[in-house]
């Protein structure tokens, strides 16, 4: 049996929007697959990539995300100088939010 790629395993569970390259899309799917591996209760992840040329170069890219699971959805937004860095920070923020105890 051939190993499956993250893109086929996550079809319908990861929604990426915005003007992004195929390399960034593949990286986003790989990072999302790590989140799914850490927490099996995740239903879906939505990630939106935006860029605003009028902002400072260090905050030009905005990546927003919504993570849906058995409880209330987690929302996060990160700005950075490049989309990959912003994506990595968003995934780290989601990982931190998932590890935080709920009240």
Low-confidence stretches: 1-8
Strand order in the largest sheet: 1-2-3-4
CATH uppermost class = Alpha Beta
Assign the CATH topology: Double Stranded RNA Binding Domain
| Number of strand segments | 4
Radius of gyration: 14 Å
Provide a brief overview of the structure.
With 103 residues, the chain is α+β, with helices and mostly antiparallel strands. The chain is built from three helices and four strands, in the order αβαβββα.
Report on the structure:
This protein is α+β, with helices and mostly antiparallel strands. The protein has helices spanning 6-9, 22-38, 83-99, and strands at residues 14-17, 44-51, 61-68, 74-80. Residues 1-8 have low confidence and may be disordered. A hairpin with a 5-residue loop joins strand 3 (61-68) and strand 4 (74-80). The chain is globular and about 40 Å long.
């Amino acid at each position: 049996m051939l190993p499956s790629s993250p893109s086929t395993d996550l079809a319908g569970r990861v929604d990426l929007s915005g003007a992004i390259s195929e390399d960034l899309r593949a990286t986003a799917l790989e990072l999302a697959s790590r989140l799914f591996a850490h927490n099996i209760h995740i239903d879906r992840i939505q990630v939106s990539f935006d860029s605003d040329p009028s902002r400072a170069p260090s905050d030009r890219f905005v990546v927003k995300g919504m993570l849906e699971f058995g409880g209330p959805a987690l929302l996060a937004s990160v700005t950075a100088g490049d989309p990959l860095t912003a994506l990595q920070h968003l995934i780290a923020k989601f990982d931190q939010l998932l590890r935080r105890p709920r009240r």
